[in-house]
Design goal:
The protein is an all-alpha fold. It has a domain of 50 residues. Helices cover 63% and strands 0% of the residues. The protein is built from three helices and no strands. Helix 1 runs antiparallel to helix 2. The model has no long low-confidence stretch (mean pLDDT 96).
Protein backbone atom coordinates (compact mmCIF):
# COMPACT_ATOMS: atom_id res chain seq x y z
CA UNK A 1 0.00 0.00 0.00
CA UNK A 2 1.47 3.34 -1.00
CA UNK A 3 0.95 6.73 0.51
CA UNK A 4 -0.65 9.33 -1.71
CA UNK A 5 -0.70 13.07 -1.17
CA UNK A 6 -3.83 15.09 -1.67
CA UNK A 7 -2.31 17.91 -3.72
CA UNK A 8 -5.26 20.25 -3.17
CA UNK A 9 -4.97 19.90 0.59
CA UNK A 10 -1.17 20.20 0.43
CA UNK A 11 -1.52 23.46 -1.52
CA UNK A 12 -3.79 24.93 1.15
CA UNK A 13 -1.33 23.92 3.88
CA UNK A 14 1.56 25.47 1.94
CA UNK A 15 -0.39 28.71 1.47
CA UNK A 16 -1.07 28.86 5.19
CA UNK A 17 2.59 28.24 5.96
CA UNK A 18 3.69 31.00 3.58
CA UNK A 19 1.23 33.42 5.18
CA UNK A 20 2.62 32.68 8.65
CA UNK A 21 6.20 33.10 7.38
CA UNK A 22 5.49 36.40 5.65
CA UNK A 23 3.69 38.05 8.58
CA UNK A 24 6.83 39.27 10.43
CA UNK A 25 8.36 40.43 7.14
CA UNK A 26 5.27 42.47 6.28
CA UNK A 27 5.28 43.96 9.77
CA UNK A 28 8.93 44.96 9.41
CA UNK A 29 8.20 46.52 6.03
CA UNK A 30 5.27 48.41 7.56
CA UNK A 31 7.65 49.99 10.06
CA UNK A 32 10.09 50.91 7.28
CA UNK A 33 7.22 52.35 5.25
CA UNK A 34 6.04 54.56 8.12
CA UNK A 35 9.58 55.76 8.80
CA UNK A 36 10.10 56.56 5.12
CA UNK A 37 6.79 58.41 4.99
CA UNK A 38 7.68 60.47 8.04
CA UNK A 39 11.04 61.35 6.49
CA UNK A 40 9.44 62.22 3.17
CA UNK A 41 11.43 59.49 1.42
CA UNK A 42 10.39 57.42 -1.59
CA UNK A 43 8.30 54.40 -0.52
CA UNK A 44 7.90 52.71 -3.91
CA UNK A 45 10.56 50.07 -3.19
CA UNK A 46 8.89 49.12 0.09
CA UNK A 47 5.48 48.96 -1.58
CA UNK A 48 6.89 46.66 -4.29
CA UNK A 49 8.42 44.34 -1.68
CA UNK A 50 5.13 44.16 0.22
CA UNK A 51 3.32 43.29 -3.01
CA UNK A 52 5.82 40.49 -3.71
CA UNK A 53 5.12 39.03 -0.28
CA UNK A 54 1.36 39.33 -0.69
CA UNK A 55 1.48 37.65 -4.09
CA UNK A 56 3.68 34.74 -2.99
CA UNK A 57 0.91 32.34 -1.87
CA UNK A 58 -0.74 32.63 -5.30
CA UNK A 59 2.31 30.89 -6.82
CA UNK A 60 1.09 27.70 -5.17
CA UNK A 61 -1.95 27.58 -7.47
CA UNK A 62 0.12 26.90 -10.59
CA UNK A 63 2.03 23.98 -9.06
CA UNK A 64 1.24 20.52 -10.41
CA UNK A 65 3.39 18.22 -8.25
CA UNK A 66 4.42 17.80 -4.63
CA UNK A 67 8.06 18.31 -5.58
CA UNK A 68 7.25 21.66 -7.18
CA UNK A 69 5.14 22.59 -4.18
CA UNK A 70 8.10 22.06 -1.87
CA UNK A 71 10.12 24.52 -3.96
CA UNK A 72 7.68 27.40 -3.56
CA UNK A 73 9.15 29.92 -1.13
CA UNK A 74 8.79 33.54 -0.18
CA UNK A 75 10.83 36.02 -2.18
CA UNK A 76 13.87 37.48 -0.47
CA UNK A 77 12.92 41.09 0.24
CA UNK A 78 15.82 41.89 2.52
CA UNK A 79 14.06 42.06 5.89
Amino acid sequence: MSITVNLTKAKEIKKSTLRVERKPKLEALDVLYLKAQEAGSDTSDIVAKKKQLRDAPAAVDSVSSVTDLKNVTLPDVGV
